[in-house]
Amino acid sequence: MEINRLPKVLLIFLTLFLIQEVLINQINFLVAGFSLYLAFFMAWVIQDQRNSAVVTGFIAGLILDLSPTLDAPFGLWTLVLTSVSYLLSSNVRAALDAELSPLVMLSVAVLASSFALALFLLFGAILGQEVGSASYLFRSISGNALWSALLSPLYIPLAIKLYKVTLTARQR
Amino acid sequence: MATRGSNRSRLLWVSLLVTSLFIITLDLRGVSLLSSLRSGTQSVLAPVERLATRVFSPFGDFFSEVGNLGRSKEKIDKLEKENQELKSQIIFNENTLAQLESLKGVLDLAGKARYKTVSARVISKGGTGTFSETIVLDIGSNSGVRRDMTVIAASGLVGVVKSTTAASSIVLLMNDPSFRIGVRVAGKQDMGILLGQGDKSYSLQMLSARSAISVGDVLLARGSSGDRPFVPGVPVGRVSYVENTVGQLTKEGRVNGFVDLNSLSVVSVVLSAVAGDPGDALVPQAPRPAPTVTVFVTPSPSPEG
User: ipTM strictly over 0.85?
Assistant: First the structure.
């Protein structure tokens, strides 16, 4: 990742974190909740080059770890998002067409955010965190997947647009 | 070239993973810098959350109607504006009345038990990515709130204070999967442990093999030493199902909580229990059955007869 992209990426994810904490978390969703931050991150990373994706994953994870209501060790989301971003950019991205269709981005955002939540739980359990009953976890992850799919027309175009904003003219 | 590029990516990835693991290790070893980062974030977020609650809480369901205003033509007359203002005012008043009602209820409960409390507004909730059921209150250590204090609403227990900053505090809700509380059955001395399940119902495990519980029994908090984290006597929930499996050492069951944790707006933090254990004084009154109206019909003689 070019150093001049870093402040823009940082600013975008900090703003998104603020929106998630201040607005989205206040909404009572019918089933579980919705992490706009995770869904947006996945839609962003799938467009990115491998090196930039990994650095973005690390930064986004560090920001998410700042969440005051989080009961997990600091750095756990950093570990999860760094891993997921590498997997997405190196394995999943390579198997997809160069031009990403909205449907592909939707599928990636839904599946990858569910995978990230599951990985977070797994690492948390290894580190001795209470993870709750299977039905609770299933409801949380599937609820998030449902909202990520339903609200994709809102955040996927935004992720595409903002991603392009951070690129230099030559990269575009 | 491609191999060199992918090797470089892998090296970057591994070094960032190692950094993450290093950060986790530091946090688990109790490095205060990392925990203060989170409380610092909470201090920064609290005023924004407070403002967002103030702005969005009364008008949350009103957005669709307000959105129509932008599409209106220039000819929107004064009457329509007044109408919108009045609608906003009504919604605002209804919201304020609902909060007032919650506040009155929680103060009634606290007054009956002679708990010394401080009231707070809920300004945010924990997100999906946290996998913990939490809320954020708009008061903190400046108002006397400390970690491990009981939080109550009008109908009973809400949770326990997990952490505080100067002007905000985070409460672990009683439906969090890690939540455990010692309870006793109202009117008896049978004790058990209530466990959060992440939803509206809770799991109950009685401590003694001879404990007798039945559907409809009310459970109260047993209280902790020094009243922290739990003051005694707070209504927790009502038994909805008792498991009668042969060979079970102790009885288990399901409990419905008294408080709807999804619609909290005003709660109280119990600073101390002035009069000690209130016993069963806070057990909610069972709803009175509506009187049955009996109508006697006397057939009148037919005009033909």
Answer: yes
